[in-house]
Fold this protein.
Amino acid sequence: MSLLNILCYPDPRLHKVAVPVTEFDDKLRQLVADMLETMYKAEGVGLAATQVNVHQRLVVMDTSEERNQAIVLINPEITWYSEERVKGEEGCLSVPGIYDGVERAVAVRVQAADEHGQVRELEAKGLMAVCVQHELDHLMGKVFVEYLSPLKRNRIKTKMLKAQKEAA
Ligand code: NI
């Protein structure tokens, strides 16, 4: 297993649209294992392949307290959104240190394959529902800061670029 490099906003590669996974092979399962390791190490609740510069429809998440309930979503599609929506604080491993409110559906149903190609549907609510919507946005090239006002987004962009320059 190995840790993967996480792209940081405003890296343009975060805006690439992912393509469906077609091969459910050992290479894919290795990528899933590496993404899970990377997510746990970074203490995130979700990671999309886009964030590690792999532009395929693949997401890993774990929203459990114990950090022992990994969920792998391959070629995920949201099949149902609750009408009820709520604004909650979100963060992202690609936008370290930034948290802001985003409105999302309270619950969703998502259909996806696991790393063996087995398709199933699961219902998510609360943090898990937020995570599903946030991670699926990544696969479409969308980062959560794009829901914020242009003013806020520009401030974040400037802050991130400055931090990246200092770290280099
Ligand atoms: Ni994110």
